[in-house]
Amino acid sequence: MPHWGWKLNLIPFSKSRPPLLVPPPATLIGALAYPLNRTLKLAETLYDYSGAERLRDILKYVGFRIDAPLINYFDLTKISFFYRKKVRSDAVAIGKTYILSQKMPQYEIPTITVCYIIDEAKAHSKFGERIKEKLVEAALGITRIGSRESLVASLNLSYGEARLIPQRRGKTVFSFLRRAVSHLFDGNFITSEVVDWERFPIGDYSRAEREVMIVPYDTTEHLPKLVDVELSDDYTFIDAGGELVIGRR
């Protein structure tokens, strides 16, 4: 459950910082990697990359569904600083994604549900036999999504064996990469351009390509909506606790 929303900058180090409405996959991997690295006593960085890079190759899928009314909002912040022994000031427009404060009957508690599909064999080989317990502890220890101000609280956790579904057409309410589907038949959704986490390391994005992420969501009703899709050849439906998600084969 987000406390107020999150701050995720589309463009860093600029005076105008437009926000991402929804968190990209690399951010969600980082949210899990931070408590896991602390538990395993591993460094937060891996050479030139983020410590989240340790998890990237064991993941078959990472995505989410949004059950919250979201809106982008900019705060104009005045910054004072010294330059050449003189006091200077400037203004920065910092964008954030807020959960709307007015009551909406469709939401008791606004939430974001994150799903991680992990290759168990790779995880055991890389981290040892007790990695499942460590991942459960890390998931319960997620405290933020994105910046340090973007606080969240874990309300519920479920885990178990995922199951491959052989069908090529189906409906999902969880986010997925655009190339994962060959055809979109029906449904409301929003799109976001994100770093291609499946093909490029996490942390150094200077050479990383971007990919469109599709998030099933109705911006009028502020509700997640099922999207009817047909899969590309390299992807499959996965049953994750009764929810269909789209992951790599």
Question: How would you characterize this protein structure?
Answer:
By secondary structure, the chain is mainly β. It has a single domain, classed as Alpha-Beta Plaits (2-Layer Sandwich), CATH 3.30.70. The protein is 15% helix and 40% strand. It contains 4 helices and 17 strands. The chain has helices at residues 25-39, 53-56, 120-127, 131-140; strands spanning 5-6, 16-17, 45-46, 49-50, 59-67, 70-83, 86-99, 111-118, 163-165, 169-172, 176-177, 181-186, 189-195, 210-216, 227-231, 235-240, 243-248. The strands form 6 sheets. Strands 1, 2, 6 and 7 form a 4-stranded mixed sheet that branches. A 3-stranded antiparallel sheet has the order 9-16-17, with no helix packed on it. The chain has a 3-stranded antiparallel sheet with strand order 10-15-12, with no helix packed on it. Helix 1 packs across helix 4 (131-140). The longest helix is centred in the first third of the chain and has 15 residues, at 25-39. It is globular and about 65 Å long.
